[in-house]
Amino acid sequence: MTQTLAFSWPFIATGTHGVSSDAQVIKGILVDIILTSQNDITFAARRSRILDNLLKAASEASVNNWDSYGAKAVTFNSFQSAISFLTHFPSSFQDPDVAVDPDGEVLLEWYVSSRRRFLVSVSDRGTISYAGIFGINKIHGTEEFVDKIPEMVIQGVARIFAAH
Fold this sequence. Notes:
Elements: H1 11-14, H2 21-36, H3 41-60, H4 76-88, E1 97-100, E2 106-113, E3 116-122, E4 127-134, E5 137-144, H5 151-162
Antiparallel strand pairs: 1-2, 2-3, 3-4, 4-5
Helix pairs in contact: 2-3, 2-4, 3-4
């Protein structure tokens, strides 16, 4: 059974609450992440910003047909996996842009130019799919994600920024 998210944005900053039990769980996860990051204010602000972007994207895609073209709603498991991915991702890299794919998965993109970009799609099944373009070279694949960022993903993100 696919669970659909429904919440009111911004519930962390304003204290308003989501309308589902899943939204309450997500709020707790985000608050814990932000509070445990307080020892480094820059890191905490940056991590808070990327998680806010994830929350905004998920909020906009919280119902089926959110794009008026039949897109699936983002699932709770995909959202939760994306939170885990982002909290495990090395802070030494630039933050990705965050969106939701029409298939309901969370999409993360690191973009330098149309010929230097890397994308990660986080599924609700604990897998990530990635694709990168580096000039004329391309890579793509699927990896299992369980609390450790796959090396191919780290290498891919590092590679798009290597020449810059």
